[in-house]
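Protein modeling request. Please complete all fields; requests missing the sequence field cannot be processed.
Requester role: graduate student
Desired output: 3D structure, token encoding
Chains: 1
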Amino acid sequence: MWVGAVSPCPFPMKKLLLLCPSRGRSERIKPFLDSIEKTCNFENTRLQILLDKDDKDLGNYFKVLPSWAQIKVFDRKYDNTLTTEILNRAFKQDDDYEFYSVTNDDMVYLTPGWDEKLCVKGKIYCGVEENALKKYGTTTPRPIDPHTFPYTSCIDGDIVRALGWIQYPKLRHSAGDNIWYWIGRRMNVLFCDESVRYVHRSAYFNDGEADDTFNKTNAYNNIDDFYIYKDWLKYKCVFDIAKIKEKLCQTQHMEPSPLPQTEHLGLPVSQ
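Delivered output (271 residues):
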């Protein structure tokens, strides 16, 4: 159940909903919050911090989170590694935004106005995660690795609503960005704005502490989620894309378009 929320969004426009799960990181979340405050347009963007009722650090979040961030506290049905559960429950409670983005509490945004640049109707837009650029020497996502495609892409709300989820429900924690990568590629709606930059202060990139939250979610989830993602790609991807296209044709009076005949890993770059 949703336990409660404080500091409701005071802004009238429902353009971008930025969802950020967090647990045990009331201190580590501060650089993320500072970067959001410096780079976002709060007339258009609402940040929701998704917390756990049983988190021993819960009280400290209420001390450090600013008034412009909405807090939602969840009593998870299963266990506290199921990030997917609270992401999808949060989406269903606010399913009327123009765009959605999932982010991490250890992300630092560098580009002012990134939230406006990445909100493009009918598209899935991402920027450049500088850690991945340093590690792999390219901005191109690598679908075999859940960490290289930026979790901070902005997805058209109609695409999310067509599926009814912001993260594939069978996943536990990882690989949701891989699934959005393939949806975007196969629908020809995935683009990268290389002027938008952010840094993921994660232990995965040797740029953050391997705390309890990192160790638990990675130990329990990454291997299982990788196989769930590969299974989706093989058996479910084409059906989910067909569902999106059918829904978009109904809501936007569009003609269906065929799937691309070839696949490649490079992303189109916005001009």
